Each structure stands twice: as structure tokens, then as C-alpha cells.
Amino acid sequence: MSKPRNQEFEFLGVNHLALVCKDMAKTVTFYRDVLGMPLIKTIDLPAGKGQHFFFDVGNGDSIAFFWFPDAPQAAPGIAAPENLPTRGNIRSAHGSMNHIAINVPAERFDEYYAKLKAKGVDVTEIFNHDDSPTQMSKELTKDVFVRSVYFFDPDGICLELAAWTREFSERDVRHAPVRADGTPDVSVLQA
């Protein structure tokens, strides 16, 4: 099967995702020194309004952070999930960002998981996501489509290392999206 193609725009991926941190120094230490992302651009905003720093996340994409001296405090469980998967409530409010999944090579996934643990990062167990009723496999099988581990950054932003393990086909798009009232809208899949 050929990959679906955008007929309207030539998007080249995510240029950057802009988040807000409480302490830019801790953010730099975590993303540059723990996760190894090169710090590629720093900006002091005019009139003392804060800072804006960019980290290279690979593939020409960036994760950026604003630091505002007067930003409101974090609101876990509202603007971001309270817990990591399997550790409690992972919901967040409409319009919030739930987590960032950083793509890694499948052949290096186990190595990177061990490296995070060795650096003292509190990570979840490995998730082998599949299409079974539990959506999880203890082993890596042919039905696993992505492997994941989750952890928080110093500001409570949920991060995921994710590795695709197979290509998708038409059978992977089969669930009708649900409307706000909880009813499925099958017409959307027929479009």
C-alpha cells in the first residue's frame, strides 16, 4: 500500500513544538545533557519578557521552550496528564498537550531504554502496543506496531520514546471517530 499523501500542502514534518518551562536552566540540563539534544538557538525576548530556546530533536525538527518570568503555575490533570501510563490518570483537558512522542530507531529501542534508566530517569515499563483486546504484548510480536516508554521532564511534561515496528495498511484505519456526545460518526471514515 502506498502511503497517504497530502493533496493540499507539502508539509515537511513538525518544524517545532513550543512548550513553556518553569526554569530554563533545568530545561537545558535535561534536554541537552540528559537526553543529548543539541541546543541550536537561544533568544532573549525583548523588554525582559522571557526566553525562547530550541533543541534539535532530529530529522530537522525541534522542541522549543518559552520561559516567562510571570507564567501561571502548572495545572497537572488539566493542562497535562497527572501520571505516566499505568501509574494513574493520564487524561488532560481539551486543547491541552498530553505528551510528546520522540521517534527512535526500533533496533536501538532497548538500548535507549537502558540508557534512560542508567541516567536515573524514572521511566515506565516498555509498552509493546498491539491490536489485541489489552492493546499490549509482553513480547515483541508481529502484531506490535509501536514500542514506547514514558517519562516526565523537570516541568512534568510527559515524554515518550517511540519506535514504529511495522508499516501501516488500510486495516489499521477501522475505528469510527466519536462525537462529543459519545456516539460514533461512521461517515467520517467513508470520506
Automatic annotation (TrEMBL):
InterPro entries: Glyas_Bleomycin-R_OHBP_Dase, Glyas_Fos-R_dOase_dom, GlyoxalaseI/FosfomycinResist, VOC_core. Transmembrane segments: none annotated. Pfam families: Glyoxalase. One of its GO terms (molecular function) is dioxygenase activity. Gene3D superfamilies: 2,3-Dihydroxybiphenyl 1,2-Dioxygenase, domain 1. The keyword Oxidoreductase applies. Keywords: Dioxygenase, Oxidoreductase. Residues 13-164 form the VOC domain. The keyword rRNA-binding does not apply. This is Glyoxalase/bleomycin resistance protein/dioxygenase. It comes from Hyphomonas polymorpha PS728. It comes from the Bacteria.
